[in-house]
From TrEMBL:
Keywords per UniProt: Glycoprotein, Glycosyltransferase, Membrane, Signal, Transferase
Protein's cellular compartments: Membrane
Any Pfam family hit: Branch
Naturally occurring in which organism (per UniProt): Cannabis sativa
Topology in membrane: Single-pass type II membrane protein
Region forming the signal peptide: 1-23
A molecular function GO annotation: glycosyltransferase activity
Main localization of the protein described in the UniProt heading: membrane
Record protein name field: Core-2/I-branching beta-1,6-N-acetylglucosaminyltransferase family protein
Source superkingdom: Eukaryota
Length: 372
Protein backbone atom coordinates (compact mmCIF):
# COMPACT_ATOMS: atom_id res chain seq x y z
CA UNK A 1 0.00 0.00 0.00
CA UNK A 2 1.20 3.49 -0.78
CA UNK A 3 1.45 5.90 2.10
CA UNK A 4 -0.88 8.91 2.12
CA UNK A 5 1.94 11.50 1.71
CA UNK A 6 3.21 9.62 -1.35
CA UNK A 7 -0.24 9.56 -2.95
CA UNK A 8 -0.73 13.30 -2.34
CA UNK A 9 2.68 14.17 -3.78
CA UNK A 10 2.11 12.01 -6.84
CA UNK A 11 -1.32 13.57 -7.41
CA UNK A 12 0.09 17.09 -7.21
CA UNK A 13 2.81 16.18 -9.70
CA UNK A 14 0.24 14.88 -12.18
CA UNK A 15 -1.90 18.01 -11.77
CA UNK A 16 0.87 20.48 -12.70
CA UNK A 17 0.28 20.32 -16.48
CA UNK A 18 -3.42 20.96 -15.92
CA UNK A 19 -2.64 23.96 -13.73
CA UNK A 20 -0.40 25.45 -16.43
CA UNK A 21 -3.19 25.05 -18.97
CA UNK A 22 -5.92 26.53 -16.80
CA UNK A 23 -3.97 29.27 -14.99
CA UNK A 24 -4.35 31.93 -17.72
CA UNK A 25 -8.13 31.62 -17.45
CA UNK A 26 -8.02 32.67 -13.82
CA UNK A 27 -5.61 35.56 -14.25
CA UNK A 28 -7.10 39.03 -14.58
CA UNK A 29 -6.38 40.97 -17.81
CA UNK A 30 -4.15 43.35 -15.88
CA UNK A 31 -1.92 40.46 -14.80
CA UNK A 32 -1.48 39.05 -18.28
CA UNK A 33 1.11 40.37 -20.68
CA UNK A 34 1.37 39.53 -24.37
CA UNK A 35 3.36 36.32 -24.74
CA UNK A 36 4.53 37.26 -28.23
CA UNK A 37 5.41 40.53 -29.97
CA UNK A 38 2.35 42.77 -30.34
CA UNK A 39 1.18 43.09 -33.93
CA UNK A 40 -1.24 45.75 -35.15
CA UNK A 41 -4.10 44.04 -36.94
CA UNK A 42 -4.89 44.77 -40.62
CA UNK A 43 -8.34 46.05 -39.64
CA UNK A 44 -6.84 48.54 -37.17
CA UNK A 45 -4.36 49.62 -39.84
CA UNK A 46 -7.19 50.23 -42.30
CA UNK A 47 -9.20 52.22 -39.76
CA UNK A 48 -6.18 54.38 -39.00
CA UNK A 49 -5.30 54.86 -42.65
CA UNK A 50 -8.81 56.10 -43.42
CA UNK A 51 -8.61 58.55 -40.50
CA UNK A 52 -5.16 59.78 -41.51
CA UNK A 53 -6.24 60.28 -45.11
CA UNK A 54 -9.18 62.36 -43.91
CA UNK A 55 -6.82 64.49 -41.83
CA UNK A 56 -4.45 64.96 -44.76
CA UNK A 57 -7.35 65.87 -47.04
CA UNK A 58 -8.81 68.35 -44.58
CA UNK A 59 -5.53 70.26 -44.62
CA UNK A 60 -6.08 71.13 -48.28
CA UNK A 61 -9.19 73.12 -47.39
CA UNK A 62 -7.82 74.62 -44.20
CA UNK A 63 -5.15 77.25 -43.76
CA UNK A 64 -1.50 77.05 -42.84
CA UNK A 65 0.05 78.69 -39.80
CA UNK A 66 0.81 81.91 -41.67
CA UNK A 67 -2.76 82.95 -42.55
CA UNK A 68 -5.02 82.99 -39.48
CA UNK A 69 -7.73 85.15 -41.07
CA UNK A 70 -9.20 82.19 -43.00
CA UNK A 71 -9.98 80.00 -39.98
CA UNK A 72 -13.57 78.78 -39.99
CA UNK A 73 -14.01 77.97 -36.28
CA UNK A 74 -13.00 81.32 -34.84
CA UNK A 75 -14.53 84.26 -33.09
CA UNK A 76 -16.08 86.96 -35.25
CA UNK A 77 -14.32 90.20 -35.99
CA UNK A 78 -10.85 91.04 -37.25
CA UNK A 79 -8.93 89.28 -34.47
CA UNK A 80 -9.40 85.51 -34.85
CA UNK A 81 -8.05 83.27 -32.11
CA UNK A 82 -5.73 80.34 -32.54
CA UNK A 83 -6.28 77.30 -30.35
CA UNK A 84 -4.22 74.71 -28.52
CA UNK A 85 -5.34 71.08 -28.81
CA UNK A 86 -4.72 69.12 -25.61
CA UNK A 87 -4.35 65.42 -26.39
CA UNK A 88 -4.66 63.04 -23.43
CA UNK A 89 -3.38 59.49 -23.81
CA UNK A 90 -4.60 57.25 -20.97
CA UNK A 91 -5.21 53.67 -19.86
CA UNK A 92 -6.77 54.59 -16.51
CA UNK A 93 -9.04 57.22 -14.99
CA UNK A 94 -8.20 60.89 -15.53
CA UNK A 95 -7.24 61.34 -11.89
CA UNK A 96 -6.55 65.06 -12.15
CA UNK A 97 -9.63 66.11 -14.12
CA UNK A 98 -10.76 68.53 -11.33
CA UNK A 99 -7.39 70.30 -11.56
CA UNK A 100 -7.63 70.49 -15.35
CA UNK A 101 -11.18 71.84 -15.01
CA UNK A 102 -9.75 74.75 -13.04
CA UNK A 103 -6.90 75.15 -15.52
CA UNK A 104 -9.22 75.47 -18.54
CA UNK A 105 -11.96 77.52 -16.83
CA UNK A 106 -13.02 80.61 -18.78
CA UNK A 107 -10.95 79.88 -21.89
CA UNK A 108 -13.19 77.60 -23.97
CA UNK A 109 -12.59 79.69 -27.12
CA UNK A 110 -8.84 79.03 -26.99
CA UNK A 111 -8.54 75.26 -26.65
CA UNK A 112 -9.90 71.85 -27.63
CA UNK A 113 -9.55 68.58 -25.70
CA UNK A 114 -9.26 65.04 -27.09
CA UNK A 115 -8.88 61.83 -25.06
CA UNK A 116 -7.70 58.41 -26.26
CA UNK A 117 -8.60 55.86 -23.55
CA UNK A 118 -7.72 52.18 -23.89
CA UNK A 119 -11.14 50.56 -24.55
CA UNK A 120 -10.18 47.37 -22.69
CA UNK A 121 -9.92 49.32 -19.43
CA UNK A 122 -12.98 50.52 -17.54
CA UNK A 123 -12.16 54.24 -17.56
CA UNK A 124 -14.61 56.51 -15.75
CA UNK A 125 -15.49 59.36 -18.07
CA UNK A 126 -15.47 62.60 -16.07
CA UNK A 127 -17.82 65.52 -16.50
CA UNK A 128 -16.60 69.08 -16.89
CA UNK A 129 -14.21 69.92 -19.71
CA UNK A 130 -13.60 66.25 -20.55
CA UNK A 131 -17.24 65.41 -21.19
CA UNK A 132 -17.80 64.30 -24.77
CA UNK A 133 -14.09 64.57 -25.63
CA UNK A 134 -13.26 60.84 -25.91
CA UNK A 135 -12.33 59.70 -29.42
CA UNK A 136 -12.67 56.19 -30.97
CA UNK A 137 -9.75 54.27 -29.50
CA UNK A 138 -7.84 51.00 -29.82
CA UNK A 139 -6.04 48.88 -27.23
CA UNK A 140 -2.55 49.99 -26.28
CA UNK A 141 0.40 47.99 -24.98
CA UNK A 142 3.57 49.25 -23.41
CA UNK A 143 6.74 48.67 -25.46
CA UNK A 144 4.81 48.46 -28.71
CA UNK A 145 3.87 50.62 -31.69
CA UNK A 146 0.28 50.79 -30.42
CA UNK A 147 1.23 53.90 -28.43
CA UNK A 148 2.43 55.55 -31.64
CA UNK A 149 -0.87 54.68 -33.30
CA UNK A 150 -2.87 56.13 -30.40
CA UNK A 151 -0.97 59.42 -30.55
CA UNK A 152 -1.42 59.62 -34.32
CA UNK A 153 -5.18 59.06 -33.88
CA UNK A 154 -5.32 61.96 -31.46
CA UNK A 155 -3.38 64.22 -33.82
CA UNK A 156 -5.51 63.27 -36.83
CA UNK A 157 -8.78 63.77 -34.95
CA UNK A 158 -7.70 67.21 -33.73
CA UNK A 159 -6.59 68.24 -37.23
CA UNK A 160 -9.95 67.26 -38.71
CA UNK A 161 -12.04 68.66 -35.87
CA UNK A 162 -10.90 72.27 -35.90
CA UNK A 163 -8.54 74.10 -38.30
CA UNK A 164 -7.98 76.64 -35.52
CA UNK A 165 -5.83 74.09 -33.67
CA UNK A 166 -2.27 75.30 -34.25
CA UNK A 167 -0.51 73.54 -31.37
CA UNK A 168 -0.99 69.93 -30.28
CA UNK A 169 0.10 69.09 -26.71
CA UNK A 170 0.37 65.37 -25.89
CA UNK A 171 -0.19 64.55 -22.21
CA UNK A 172 -1.00 61.57 -19.99
CA UNK A 173 -3.32 61.01 -17.04
CA UNK A 174 -0.31 61.51 -14.76
CA UNK A 175 0.53 64.98 -16.11
CA UNK A 176 -0.34 68.21 -14.31
CA UNK A 177 -0.08 71.86 -15.36
CA UNK A 178 2.63 74.02 -13.81
CA UNK A 179 1.06 77.35 -14.81
CA UNK A 180 -2.28 78.94 -15.60
CA UNK A 181 -3.86 78.45 -19.01
CA UNK A 182 -3.25 82.12 -19.78
CA UNK A 183 0.49 81.66 -19.24
CA UNK A 184 0.62 78.49 -21.36
CA UNK A 185 -1.31 80.09 -24.21
CA UNK A 186 0.76 83.27 -24.21
CA UNK A 187 4.02 81.30 -24.08
CA UNK A 188 3.15 79.15 -27.09
CA UNK A 189 1.15 81.49 -29.29
CA UNK A 190 2.33 85.02 -28.58
CA UNK A 191 5.64 85.26 -26.73
CA UNK A 192 8.86 85.89 -28.64
CA UNK A 193 11.08 85.31 -25.61
CA UNK A 194 9.67 82.07 -24.18
CA UNK A 195 11.91 79.84 -26.33
CA UNK A 196 15.46 80.64 -25.28
CA UNK A 197 16.86 78.92 -28.37
CA UNK A 198 14.87 81.14 -30.76
CA UNK A 199 16.34 84.12 -32.59
CA UNK A 200 13.08 85.56 -33.94
CA UNK A 201 12.84 89.29 -34.53
CA UNK A 202 9.97 91.77 -34.43
CA UNK A 203 9.62 91.38 -38.20
CA UNK A 204 8.41 87.84 -37.63
CA UNK A 205 5.31 89.05 -35.80
CA UNK A 206 2.07 89.26 -37.76
CA UNK A 207 -0.12 92.33 -37.86
CA UNK A 208 -2.45 90.55 -35.43
CA UNK A 209 0.20 90.36 -32.75
CA UNK A 210 0.85 86.64 -32.88
CA UNK A 211 3.91 84.83 -34.13
CA UNK A 212 3.90 83.86 -37.79
CA UNK A 213 6.45 81.09 -37.46
CA UNK A 214 6.18 78.38 -34.83
CA UNK A 215 8.45 75.57 -33.71
CA UNK A 216 7.54 72.23 -32.20
CA UNK A 217 8.62 71.64 -28.62
CA UNK A 218 9.83 68.06 -28.89
CA UNK A 219 12.89 66.47 -27.31
CA UNK A 220 15.31 65.14 -29.93
CA UNK A 221 18.49 63.45 -28.68
CA UNK A 222 21.17 61.81 -30.81
CA UNK A 223 23.12 60.39 -27.88
CA UNK A 224 21.63 58.27 -25.15
CA UNK A 225 22.55 55.23 -23.11
CA UNK A 226 21.41 52.00 -24.78
CA UNK A 227 20.56 53.81 -28.04
CA UNK A 228 22.25 51.09 -30.13
CA UNK A 229 20.40 48.34 -28.26
CA UNK A 230 17.12 50.09 -28.91
CA UNK A 231 17.99 50.57 -32.57
CA UNK A 232 18.64 46.85 -32.98
CA UNK A 233 15.68 45.69 -30.83
CA UNK A 234 13.92 44.49 -34.02
CA UNK A 235 17.08 43.04 -35.52
CA UNK A 236 20.46 44.46 -36.48
CA UNK A 237 19.42 45.65 -39.94
CA UNK A 238 15.65 45.89 -39.47
CA UNK A 239 15.53 49.70 -39.66
CA UNK A 240 17.62 49.96 -42.83
CA UNK A 241 17.73 51.61 -45.27
CA UNK A 242 15.04 54.12 -44.29
CA UNK A 243 16.45 54.80 -40.82
CA UNK A 244 20.25 54.63 -40.60
CA UNK A 245 21.62 54.46 -37.08
CA UNK A 246 23.17 57.93 -37.33
CA UNK A 247 19.67 59.36 -37.88
CA UNK A 248 17.96 57.36 -35.13
CA UNK A 249 16.80 59.65 -32.32
CA UNK A 250 15.21 59.41 -28.88
CA UNK A 251 13.06 61.78 -26.85
CA UNK A 252 10.07 62.13 -24.57
CA UNK A 253 6.73 60.92 -25.92
CA UNK A 254 5.11 64.02 -24.43
CA UNK A 255 5.56 67.01 -26.69
CA UNK A 256 3.88 70.04 -28.28
CA UNK A 257 3.73 69.95 -32.08
CA UNK A 258 2.85 72.65 -34.57
CA UNK A 259 0.08 71.96 -37.05
CA UNK A 260 2.49 71.38 -39.93
CA UNK A 261 4.39 68.78 -37.90
CA UNK A 262 1.18 67.11 -36.72
CA UNK A 263 0.25 66.80 -40.40
CA UNK A 264 3.69 65.39 -41.21
CA UNK A 265 3.15 62.70 -38.58
CA UNK A 266 -0.25 61.57 -39.86
CA UNK A 267 0.92 61.68 -43.49
CA UNK A 268 3.96 59.50 -42.86
CA UNK A 269 3.94 55.99 -44.25
CA UNK A 270 7.64 55.27 -44.81
CA UNK A 271 9.01 55.41 -41.26
CA UNK A 272 5.82 53.95 -39.84
CA UNK A 273 6.41 50.71 -41.74
CA UNK A 274 9.69 50.37 -39.85
CA UNK A 275 8.54 51.39 -36.39
CA UNK A 276 5.38 49.28 -36.44
CA UNK A 277 7.49 46.12 -36.66
CA UNK A 278 7.46 44.29 -33.32
CA UNK A 279 10.49 44.26 -31.08
CA UNK A 280 11.99 41.01 -29.88
CA UNK A 281 13.75 42.66 -26.95
CA UNK A 282 10.87 44.16 -24.99
CA UNK A 283 13.04 45.69 -22.27
CA UNK A 284 14.91 47.68 -24.92
CA UNK A 285 11.93 48.68 -27.04
CA UNK A 286 10.07 51.96 -26.56
CA UNK A 287 8.90 52.88 -30.09
CA UNK A 288 6.93 55.95 -28.98
CA UNK A 289 10.18 57.50 -27.67
CA UNK A 290 11.88 57.10 -31.05
CA UNK A 291 9.35 57.40 -33.86
CA UNK A 292 8.35 61.06 -33.39
CA UNK A 293 11.82 62.55 -32.72
CA UNK A 294 13.35 60.48 -35.54
CA UNK A 295 10.67 61.47 -38.06
CA UNK A 296 10.82 65.19 -37.30
CA UNK A 297 14.60 65.22 -37.04
CA UNK A 298 14.81 63.71 -40.52
CA UNK A 299 12.17 65.98 -42.08
CA UNK A 300 12.48 69.36 -40.33
CA UNK A 301 15.16 69.56 -37.63
CA UNK A 302 15.28 73.36 -37.72
CA UNK A 303 11.56 73.52 -37.06
CA UNK A 304 11.97 71.82 -33.67
CA UNK A 305 13.36 73.23 -30.43
CA UNK A 306 14.92 69.83 -29.56
CA UNK A 307 13.49 69.95 -26.01
CA UNK A 308 10.18 69.14 -24.30
CA UNK A 309 7.97 71.34 -22.13
CA UNK A 310 6.96 68.47 -19.83
CA UNK A 311 9.22 68.08 -16.80
CA UNK A 312 10.03 64.56 -15.67
CA UNK A 313 12.27 63.18 -12.93
CA UNK A 314 14.32 60.15 -13.98
CA UNK A 315 16.00 59.80 -10.58
CA UNK A 316 15.47 56.29 -9.28
CA UNK A 317 13.79 55.10 -12.47
CA UNK A 318 12.53 51.51 -12.48
CA UNK A 319 11.74 49.42 -15.57
CA UNK A 320 11.60 52.48 -17.79
CA UNK A 321 9.19 54.39 -15.53
CA UNK A 322 10.13 57.85 -14.18
CA UNK A 323 9.97 58.88 -10.56
CA UNK A 324 6.41 59.22 -9.24
CA UNK A 325 5.63 62.08 -6.85
CA UNK A 326 3.43 61.25 -3.86
CA UNK A 327 0.95 63.39 -1.95
CA UNK A 328 3.42 64.19 0.83
CA UNK A 329 5.83 65.77 -1.67
CA UNK A 330 3.36 68.23 -3.19
CA UNK A 331 4.08 71.84 -2.21
CA UNK A 332 4.46 75.29 -3.78
CA UNK A 333 8.22 74.78 -3.59
CA UNK A 334 7.97 71.60 -5.68
CA UNK A 335 5.94 73.43 -8.35
CA UNK A 336 8.52 76.21 -8.50
CA UNK A 337 11.39 73.71 -8.83
CA UNK A 338 9.62 71.80 -11.58
CA UNK A 339 9.16 75.00 -13.58
CA UNK A 340 12.90 75.64 -13.83
CA UNK A 341 14.27 75.09 -17.34
CA UNK A 342 17.57 75.66 -19.11
CA UNK A 343 15.88 75.86 -22.51
CA UNK A 344 12.77 77.99 -22.11
CA UNK A 345 11.37 80.48 -19.64
CA UNK A 346 9.63 77.62 -17.86
CA UNK A 347 8.36 74.08 -18.14
CA UNK A 348 4.60 74.10 -18.69
CA UNK A 349 3.65 70.59 -17.50
CA UNK A 350 5.10 67.89 -15.25
CA UNK A 351 4.79 64.17 -14.62
CA UNK A 352 4.55 61.69 -12.99
CA UNK A 353 2.11 62.26 -10.10
CA UNK A 354 0.26 59.54 -8.20
CA UNK A 355 -3.56 59.82 -7.99
CA UNK A 356 -3.46 60.68 -4.29
CA UNK A 357 -1.77 63.98 -5.21
CA UNK A 358 -5.10 65.46 -6.35
CA UNK A 359 -6.13 66.99 -3.02
CA UNK A 360 -2.79 68.66 -2.18
CA UNK A 361 -2.54 69.91 -5.78
CA UNK A 362 -6.03 71.43 -5.58
CA UNK A 363 -5.10 73.00 -2.24
CA UNK A 364 -2.19 74.91 -3.81
CA UNK A 365 -3.72 75.51 -7.25
CA UNK A 366 -4.67 79.16 -6.79
CA UNK A 367 -1.75 80.24 -4.64
CA UNK A 368 1.01 78.39 -6.52
CA UNK A 369 0.15 76.53 -9.74
CA UNK A 370 -2.04 79.19 -11.36
CA UNK A 371 -0.09 82.10 -9.92
CA UNK A 372 2.48 82.84 -12.61
Amino acid sequence: MFSTPFVLSFSLLLSLPILFLLAPRFLSPLQQQPQSPVLISPSDEQDDLALFNRASGSAINSINNNNPSRFSHLSTGSNPKRKIAFLFLTNSDLHFSPLWDQFFKGNSHLYNIYVHADPTVNVTRPHGVFEGRFIPAKRTYRASATLISATRRLLATAIIDDPANVFFAVLSQYCVPLHSFRYVYHSLVVSRSFDSSSAETDAELTRLGVRAKYKSFIEILSKSRNLWKRYTARGRFAMMPEVPYDQFRVGSQFFVLTRRHALAVVKDRTLWRKFRSPCYKEDECYPEEHYFPTLLSMTDPNGCTQYTLTRVNWTGTTKGHPYTYGAAEVSPELIHRLRESNHSESYLFARKFSPDCLKPLMDIAKKAIFRD
